[in-house]
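Students often ask why inverse folding is considered easier than folding. One informal answer: many sequences map to the same fold, so there is more than one right answer. In these notes we will look at a single instance of the problem. The structure comes first.
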């Protein structure tokens, strides 16, 4: 049987910093939480060790694999 390329979603966590002016650390945190959807993705960020996770549900993998134009995700092709 011929091999097929499967699109496997992966997730990982990044850590970065934002700068918020406030009267206290508590108020800065409160402001950040209140405006979470408005905050930019930090330009400088680092991968959080141990956060890489592979989607293990075959149905989800099959859905992404069967999707037309799935190269739009710019997948990293890995040969194992």
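Output (designed amino acids):
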């Amino acid at each position: 049987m011929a091999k097929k390329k499967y699109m496997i979603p992966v997730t990982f966590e990044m850590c970065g910093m934002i700068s918020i002016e406030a009267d206290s650390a508590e108020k800065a945190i409160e402001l950040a939480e209140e405006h979470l959807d408005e905050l930019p993705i930090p330009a400088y960020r680092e991968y959080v060790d141990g956060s890489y996770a592979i989607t293990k549900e075959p149905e989800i993998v099959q859905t992404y694999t069967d999707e037309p134009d799935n190269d739009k995700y710019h997948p990293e092709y890995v040969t194992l």
